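Example record

One chain of 456 residues, shown exactly as stored in the release files.
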Amino acid sequence: MSELVKVVLKDDEIPRQWYNIQADLKKPVPPPVDKNGKPIGPDALAPVFPMNLIEQEVSTRRWIDIPEEILGILKLWRPSPLYRARRLEQALKTPAIILYKNEGVSPPGSHKPNTAVAQAYYNREFGIKRLTTETGAGQWGSALAFGCKLLGLECKVYMVRISFDQKPFRKIMMRTWGAECVASPSRETNAGRAILEKDPDTPGSLGIAISEAIEAAVTGKNTRYALGSVLNHVLMHQTIIGLEAKKQMEMLGLYPDVVIGCAGGGSNFAGLSFPFVCDKMAGRNVRVIAVEPAACPTLTRAPYVYDSGDVAMMTPLLAMYSLGHTFVPPPIHAGGLRYHGMAPLVSHVLREGLIEAQALHQMECYGAAMKFAHTEGFIPAPETSHAIAMAIREAEKAREEGKKRVILFNWSGHGLMDLTGYQAYLDGKLSDFALPEEMLTRSLASMEGLPRPPAA
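Predicted structure tokens for this chain:
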């Protein structure tokens, strides 16, 4: 342990099942409903998703087998390494042990292919030929393009306009893997045209891009929609991260005191944390922290409501913390964390007191990313920097208290496609943005008249 830098599992040690947290929740997550508050059944989702994924979405089985073909593709980069951030520990002069799960080793450079490959596989098995999706920072879009190419599906991506302009190399990645990528809002869909008529200069949002992608899916032949976060089956596919991390920490003889992940829609956070939340529900003492941007404070300032996942309200209403489906976030550089709502499962475990939530400003996060790059060498994605900043806070707290603490966080992706954000930071062109109360109030008004989830 004294010299250990990373723990690498063998190929045959890859988890062969996904963990479904729904099996262990004391209270079930409130079901999706229609605008009248009536629960919807699986058939209502069939125009958007294949039935084999809908079955996973509603399943309460604890373990779901991972098909061999999916495992064969995941083994291109999995199991991913668990690193000890020794040089960061030394720079912070902390007694804490800082560990991070490196999900940047996948071909697209993030955790997103863990579910992209699975979703492409299940759609192909159901007879689907083409997938549509949205993307914010471009990590999900490039991951789905990758997954579709390896499994023989066509792919079209609606990319939030501000990221489309800020991150040109993500577009090139998608095209390299054969996907079509357009800026959202576009003039290709009714939803996009309606937004542009109201605001031709809109930076776009994930809610808008989702509307366009769903519209293209339900009006296309042999086409379905794929979502990179939020939904139950997506979070479940990502639990391979936490399951691997638990094996690796057992090899070290360690267990985390604190588990940290950045949170936008909730997938990478849930992927690392849910296997540990399972332990917490069984009585284990572990803190779990979701970290979001102060400019898009879904978990820390939004109400728990039923809301739509997209601006055109084409999705069912989900029980979640939401800033309102019309929310258009400020153009901060952590594009993957700019979603208006949080995954129902993540929202539920926060409401049940199983996790904590913190909101950080982007200047602190970029500063943490720079410190990480200067010590560990890897340049993190702007989204990942939120987890790093919180890990540094916890390590500094351990130093101040003189306590040894084991900190585990998800290094959800590299920042090599996000260097324009670093350039803006280095050139002094970035600043913090605290969401004004009046902007939040206007956005929350979009949910007036919608049904409310049951009281806690």
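Notes: The first strand starts at residue 6 and ends at 7.
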